[in-house]
Amino acid sequence: MDTKKTKEKTLPDIKDITICESTGKMIEKARKDGVELCFDRAATMKACPIGADSACCKHCSMGPCRLNAKDPYAKVGVCGATIDTIQARNFGRMIAAGAAAHTDHGMAMLDLFREVVNGKIKEYTIKDPIKLNEVAASIGIETEEQTTEEVAHALYEQLERTYTQVEGEIPFVKRVPPKTLESWRKLGIVPRGAMREIMEMMHRTHIGVDQHYENIMKQGNRTALSDGWGGSMVATEISDILFGTPVPVAAEVNMGVLKENQVNIIVHGHEPNLFESMMASVNSPALIQAAKDAGAEGLNLVGMCCSGAEMLSRHGIPHAGNFTSTEAIMVTGAVDAMAVDVQCIQQALSKVADCYGTYLFTTNPRCHIEGAEHIEFHEHDPSSCTDEVVIKAISRFKSRKYPVQIPNIRNTGIHGFSYEYINYMLGGTFRGSYTPLNDNIINGRIRGVAGVVGCTNPRVKQDWVHVELVKELIRNDVLVLQTGCSQIALAKEGLCSPEAAYLAGPGLSEVCEAVGMPPVLGMGSCVDNSRILIAASEMVKVGGLGESIAELPVAGAAPEWMSEKAISIGQYFVASGVYTVFGVTFPVTQNTRFHDLLFNGLEKQGLGKWGFTPDPYEMAQKMIAHIDAKRKALGIHKTRERKLVDMAERRELA
Ligand code: XCC
Ligand code: SF4
Predict the structure, then answer these.
(1) pTM above 0.85, yes or no
(2) C-alpha distances in angstroms, 284 versus 261, 273, 354, 569?
(3) What is the 3-state secondary structure (H, E, C) of 585-614?
(4) Ligand 2 atom with least separation from CA of 58
(5) pLDDT tens, residue by residue, 129-175
(6) Does the CB atom of residue 59 touch ligand 2 within 6 A?
(7) Ligand in closest contact with the CA of 84
(8) Cα(22)–Cα(35) distance, rounded to whole angstroms?
């Protein structure tokens, strides 16, 4: 008891942990209940300072070797590896792991697509044949006078190359602006196939192979590009083809989407197929009846994390919270079952679930958790898994033993801005194009575009960095594109609703009001960052803003990142030409040649560059300064200066 008290004393104030009111309430309750959450673990487990600077190597048993980040060139590893080699290898392996996660997910989607096309799986169909044709045409597949089946077969064969091809270029590089692609070809970083790139990355970072940090990063770029323009893009496009391309839909987020008198089922993870089948199960009349027989008013399905963000965007399914709220939500006592698949599933969920009698089910052969029941999900017979989850959830509802306390907070917003929809929204049905977006950038109403994405991380105040950064950006007329856990942070603050236009600068708010769109456009899960790449390519294609992605007045950020996937995403944005700023910490020692390569050198090679600051206001400044520099290089800064005068005038009027 005593130890518990001292522990409580050392735990930080809840207002310093999160700005999410519901999560805060649940942290408070968890502390009373004696249940530990990630925030508590982060507070009591200091991050390893050597690892944080990436100054250690354990790639062989002559080590592990530990260098001194304060004096990085004073020592080398037993094999002679320098700080630059060690960090580049560590960074390369983070990219490889992140790229592997996205591409393996994409491959699972492609496996499903193949079986649907071959007629072996009947539970799913091609829901969006228009998108099928568009994707096929974008990589040069003949679609005129072809049946849907023929196009689908041809597309499958082409997209399989994204993974398995051993030489040549992956299919989606056909979508890359020619000048950007040219710079990749010159550098030798056009991906051949994701499996090959990830394999080579792992090989080159083994002891005694690649020992030049620049050469290691060449493969780092190539591997990351095989994710962004490969695995992730395939995942997004195939999911749209099978489940429908998102169009804007009003939906609710936050813990208040749980319902006390209903059976609450949460799906958390990344793969839309599990979620789609769960939707079918909760709509099954027999199961609805079973829930009613158990005394419930119905079945309530909600999402979390990325599969949640994807379903929020695609179907308007309510979303209960982002990554660092996944344990906290169970503290409500209202979660009858949580089904997870892959990625960002904290092992501690199992313990918290135990504390509140929630059923936690793993469903994917790639992800089991000690202490959690595994009900494997098979695409050939999806309902046998998802029905079982629902049945178990109903039984838990019937025998709920714990008091239920649901924070009564819900925020409505508009989600589901696929790049196709942005096209339509700005250009109209008859002249759908990115021309109006480019025009508004050129005339200075919109200063530039920022992609703000990524995780939440218990080492920083949850949601706060996302929200402050984005408010600052839109106030300065920067249109914000969102995905993943970041999108949920913004949605909880009401920034995904058209009414948030009043927080935007005069130019951006004028555009938002004219079109009826929010200043923050939610596009889906983290694999859907590929939508941002395509939007950027469209902007180049339309013209007036330079010939490569590197010339666009755009910037990216992952203010509260935590996963290796985020590093892979960051690197593919950088390699595509985007200035990308990360928060929290950056896993590289400062004042080293490798650090200089990431933060300056890559840009000199014609790519983008990395930036870092944990401070949201400084982050916004860096991004805006970059956008302004790009405007100046394009010769469109004058229009903006005029706009700024307008703003001053407006202020005077107000
Ligand atoms: Fe995971 Fe994708 Fe990060 Fe959220 S944002 S914590 S990676 S769920 Ni993608
Ligand atoms: Fe040490 Fe070199 Fe082995 Fe790394 S690879 S642990 S630096 S000896």
Answers:
(1) yes
(2) 19, 17, 28, 38
(3) CCCCCCCCHHHHHHHHHHHHCCCCCEEECC
(4) 6
(5) 999 999 999 999 999 999 999 999 999 999 999 999 999 999 999 99
(6) yes
(7) 2
(8) 16
